[in-house]
Design goal:
two-stranded antiparallel ribbon, about 200 residues, 9-stranded mixed β-sheet
Length: about 200
């Protein structure tokens, strides 16, 4: 079974809508992040979302092998491009112990405020030609609600659950997978990123 099949069969995962970032297109971003995985053994993907906070993502990693599946927006331009490009230099799983980012890693950029976080990925590929049925997922924090993406909340923890009859299900059911699955290191999962001092 391929890693993508494993990710699509996992009972829980993180799903992220991919968009441009600070003037860099998706192909360039994925290329840089895949190079980090090859050269350093991991990369950090800034994903500031109330639906994928460190404790939530770390819980997924502790209960099973963690996966991130990157999908296209419902419509072209549907993911708001990130404009901020502050750079992180350290990370923390708990905001108590801070470690420098690995030597040689590519830029880890985004809006570095008090709530900045990053998914820690140890594998990533864009060699995928699949779609995902989002009606097969519910909100990871509240499985009685369907998975929903809105501007500013484009990354979410998700659990497998049929939401096809839910009145608030997503209108855009099928999305093309643009990258993945990205597996996360079991112990790190998601890290806090500080603003530059």
């Amino acid at each position: 079974m391929s890693l993508l099949d494993e990710a699509l069969r996992a009972s829980e995962c993180v799903i992220s809508v991919m968009g441009a970032h600070a003037g860099e297109d998706a192909a360039a971003i994925f290329g840089r992040k895949m190079e980090d995985c090859t050269e350093i053994g991991r990369t950090f993907w800034v994903a500031e979302s109330a639906k994928a906070r460190p404790a939530q993502v770390q819980a997924i990693c502790k209960s099973s092998h963690g996966y991130v599946i990157f999908i296209e927006p419902a419509a072209p331009g549907g993911a708001r491009p990130t404009k901020e490009s502050d750079a992180a230099t350290s990370c923390s799983p708990d905001r108590a112990t801070w470690l420098p980012l690995p030597t040689g890693i590519g830029p880890v950029t985004g809006q570095m405020d008090a709530s900045a976080t990053a998914l820690v990925l140890d594998e990533l590929t864009t060699d995928v030609d699949r779609t995902i049925d989002l009606w097969g997922y519910a909100d990871g924090a509240d499985p009685d609600k369907p998975l929903k993406f809105v501007l500013g909340l484009s990354t979410a923890c998700a659990v497998q659950k049929d939401t096809s009859t839910h009145p608030r299900r997503m209108k855009s059911r099928y999305r093309r997978i643009v990258a993945g699955p990205a597996s996360r290191e079991f112990e790190r999962g998601n890290q806090w990123l500080p603003a530059q001092p």
